[in-house]
């Protein structure tokens, strides 16, 4: 089984979600099921069926997170040797040479990716093009709309 990379922040968020699901959501759902049961006939009890559906989703998500945490390899980029190369966890500033527009991305695990927050998966075309490169290197990203060129302006091990 391959280990799934995760940043320290990604692990913290998953553990917080797991804790919320187990300590807050699960007891709330169990209480809702108990209350719905008290109302009588379960066949036509919409509250009961909704609570059971929530319970199913909650338990599935708990299993999913526990599996991810069991299979993950947490990479703390601040503890890595700063070689100046783009690696998992680094924050990279790119410049579009045509427009001089700057974009900043942190390379993270697939579950942590959120482009709006500047976090891209290590499996994304942009991240794959950057991996192993250094400041001042040029990269070309293969995109559906055509090739996009960038210059790596800064590589940070934050």
Please give the CATH class of the largest domain: Alpha Beta
Number of domains: 2
Annotated CATH architecture of the largest domain: Roll
Q: Please, what is the CATH homologous superfamily of the largest domain?
A: Transcription elongation factor, GreA/GreB, C-terminal domain
Q: Given the helix and strand composition, which structural class is it? A: alpha/beta
Poorly predicted parts? none
Portion of residues within helices: 25-40%
How many β-strand runs?
A: 7
Q: State the distance separating the first and last CA atoms.
A: 29 Å
Rg measurement, Å: 22 Å
Order of helices and strands: EHHEEEEHEE
Order of strands across the main sheet: 5-4-3-7-6
Number of continuous helical runs: 3
Shape: elongated
Structure, described:
The protein contains 3 helices and 7 strands. It is α/β, with parallel strands linked by helices. The strands form 2 sheets. Strands 5-4-3-7-6 form a 5-stranded mixed beta sheet. A hairpin with a 2-residue loop joins β6 and β7 (146-156). α1 (8-38) packs antiparallel against α2 (46-71). The protein starts with a strand and ends with a strand.
């Amino acid at each position: 089984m391959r280990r799934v990379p995760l940043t320290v922040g990604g692990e913290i968020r998953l553990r917080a979600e797991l804790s919320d699901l187990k300590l807050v959501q699960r007891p709330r759902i169990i209480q809702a099921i108990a209350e719905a049961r008290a109302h009588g006939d379960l066949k036509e009890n919409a509250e009961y069926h909704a609570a059971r559906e929530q319970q199913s989703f909650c338990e599935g998500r708990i299993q999913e997170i526990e599996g991810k945490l069991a299979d993950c390899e947490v990479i703390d980029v601040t503890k890595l040797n700063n070689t100046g190369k783009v690696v998992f966890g680094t924050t990279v500033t790119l410049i579009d040479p045509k427009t001089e527009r700057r974009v900043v991305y942190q390379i993270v695990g697939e579950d942590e990716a959120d482009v709006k927050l500047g976090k891209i998966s290590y499996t994304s075309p942009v991240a794959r093009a950057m991996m192993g490169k250094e400041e001042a290197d040029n990269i070309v990203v293969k995109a559906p709309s055509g090739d996009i060129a960038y210059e790596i302006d800064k590589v940070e091990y934050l």
